[in-house]
Amino acid sequence: MNKRGNEKVNWFVLGESSYKLLITIVFYAGLVAILGYSYLFMQTVSMVSPVVTYMDNGAFTQRGNTFLAIIAGIAFFLVVSVVWKLVCEFILLIFEALRAYISSKKHETFRETYNNKF
Q1: CA dist 31 to 4, 20, 27, 98, 117, Å?
Q2: Which DSSP string corresponds to the chain?
Q3: What is the Cα–Cα distance from 18 to 41, expressed in whole angstroms?
Q4: Under a CB-based contact definition with an 8 Å cutoff, are residues 76 and 41 in contact?
Q5: pLDDT band at 71, cuts 50/70/90?
Q6: Which residues of 6-21 are buried (b: 16+ CB within 10 A; e: fewer)?
Q7: String of b and e for 58-92 (b: at least 16 CB within 10 Å)?
Q8: Is 72 within 8 Å of 42 (Cβ atoms)?
Q9: What pTM does this model have?
Q10: From CA 108, how far away is CA 115, in angstroms rounded?
Q11: What pLDDT shows up at residue 1?
């Protein structure tokens, strides 16, 4: 459903959707992508900083540092999400400024046309 009533948004027609709705969809799609990249970052941190356990006979075992990987993944997700939110807000600000500029130009053109006719 759309905010305008019972109308459905036709995704295959350009110019029918609100820019706020489109930026919101892009924001949430970006969050899903960031979640995937934070998982990859967790895997990388786990492999790069292993925990080494030494045994009595001189041998050792090596495993990933799970705790550090989880902390790093959460921190990565939070930081990149904040940056992504700022980028999307900046894009919304640009679209809002363009909308206001176009609206003011339409009013100026209407006033000029109206004043010239009468």
Answers
A1: 27, 17, 6, 26, 53
A2: -BTTBSPPP-TTSTT-S-HHHHHHHHHHHHHHHHHHHHHHHHHHHHHHSEEEEE-TTS-EEEEE-HHHHHHHHHHHHHHHHHHHHHHHHHHHHHHHHHHHHHHHHHHHHHHHHHHHH-
A3: 34
A4: yes
A5: very high
A6: eeeeeeeeeeeeeeee
A7: eeeeeebbeebbeebbeebbeebbeebeeebeeee
A8: yes
A9: 0.70
A10: 11
A11: 46
User: Which residue's entry shows tokens 């109308």?
Assistant: 7
Looking at residue 60, its amino acid is: F
Specify burial of residue 46 (Cβ count, 10 A radius: 0-12, 13-18, 19+).
buried
Token pair listed for 46: 């786990």
Question: What's the token pair of residue 112?
Answer: 């000029």
Q: What is the pLDDT of residues 39-52, one digit of tens each?
A: 999 999 998 888 87
Q: Which residue has the tokens 């050792």?
A: 60
Estimate the crossing angle of helix 66-117 against helix 19-48, to 10 degrees: 160
The tokens for 69 are 């990987």
Give the mean model confidence (pLDDT) for residues 9-15: 68
